[in-house]
Amino acid sequence: MTLDELQTNDIVVIGTGYVGLPAALMLAKAGHRVIGVDIDENIVRAINEGVLLVKGEQLQEIMDEPTVRENLKAQSTPCEADVFIIAVPTPLDKTNKTANLKMVVEATNSIVPYLSEGNLIILESTVPPLTCRKVMTPLIESSGLKVGSNIHLAHCPERILPGDIFYEIIHNDRIIGAADSVSRDMAATVYSSFVEGELLLTDDITAEFVKLIENTYRDVNIALANELSSVAQSLQIDAKGAINLANRHPRVNILTPGIGVGGHCIPIDPWFIQQVNDQNSRLINTARVINDEMPRKIVYQIKTATQNIDGPRIVAIGAAYKANTADIRESPSIEIVRLLRSEGYEVNHFDPLVDGMNFPTTMTDACANADCLVILVEHESVLRELDQHEQDILNVLGIPLILRF
Ligand SMILES: NC(=O)c1ccc[n+]([C@@H]2O[C@H](COP(=O)([O-])OP(=O)(O)OC[C@H]3O[C@@H](n4cnc5c(N)ncnc54)[C@H](O)[C@@H]3O)[C@@H](O)[C@H]2O)c1
Description:
Blueprint: H1 3-7, E1 10-14, H2 20-29, E2 33-37, H3 41-49, H4 57-64, H5 66-71, E3 72-75, E4 83-86, E5 92-93, E6 98-99, H6 102-111, E7 120-123, H7 131-141, E8 152-155, H8 165-171, E9 174-177, H9 181-192, E10 199-202, H10 204-234, H11 239-246, H12 269-276, H13 282-305, E11 313-317, H14 332-342, E12 346-350, H15 363-367, E13 372-375, H16 380-396, E14 401-404
Parallel strand pairs: 1-2, 1-4, 2-3, 4-7, 7-8, 9-10, 11-12, 11-13, 13-14
Antiparallel strand pairs: 5-6
Helix pairs in contact: 6-7, 10-11, 10-12, 10-13, 12-13, 13-14
The protein binds nicotinamide-adenine-dinucleotide (NAD).
Nicotinamide-adenine-dinucleotide binds near residues 20, 125 and 265.
């Protein structure tokens, strides 16, 4: 398949959320006719009305382009196409810490009636190694077609950073994994229509593993920073100061400790490595445990700092899983507030970036009648406000206590 042939053909994107919608937009912008398929009727309606539910100014600009409005349509069931891209959630089964592939299975089954010879299926969802071969291939072959022979399958995991999707989807290098070279080349053709980063070709199992390695690398390094922070605290020294000094070594680059790890990827993907090889994932497992313990440790610090106040009233700021985003998935700050409330603490929780959680008026007003302000997520706008109004805030607090982590 050449790029010219693809230009006139249809691409169906199954699952038009954080990952699928930006891909659909970029492909439509590049001139492909794209059908976004989502089981959520609100998402289907929003796409057809040109409204973006995933936040991002530049993505809305792309959505507003006449070519994109013309090329991108949405519907709730699949249809025939040349290329099918699957970008559905792969959540963690929290009981046994393994990937729940139910939605990948459902999405794959949903396209089987529409498959025909020469089609390409691309899985963008993050999955444990061997998912393409052991889970998807048998489902696709139930159509009577043979993967790697007269139908093609590739895994092209997504690496975008929520908050900077537009830049990253174009400029990041992209892993293109498939068991055979025809599937690989076809998938590379699809992504070459909008990716300016390098297309890195490999096999499907390596591609599945690489995506997990990336997030596990982050998780383990964050766990190291968090562990060092706990040790520094026991020594009553400033953890961030000590880490900054250690980072002056030319070959040391320790990350910043925090309140825990959140989002849809980092707290989840390392478990997908452990599930395929438990015995050799001891460090990965320990890092997960350390990071998952952080909300409890932060709660302990808040309780210690407020122990002399009878029934402390707390204002907590930040619900997103990290600074400067509105994404609250797996957010440690939400867990911290939940734990505090479960122990009877009165907590008012705000996040100016999260819908429905903004301050009624100002941050200073939100602190009136409270004893203590806890900054859980350091959004730039929150730090600016704190910088400008710190004295006013201290004046309205019952006790002049501002905790930052
Ligand atoms: N969000 C990120 O930043 C990010 C980054 C890299 C990788 N990923 C991975 O990408 C995958 C998708 O994540 P997401 O963040 O886009 O999820 P999401 O929840 O934002 O979007 C997924 C969409 O799929 C739809 N869906 C579910 N089952 C469907 C089906 N059978 N048919 C049609 N639509 C269906 C849902 O309604 C939803 O709109 C996951 O595997 C995730 O781990 C996410």
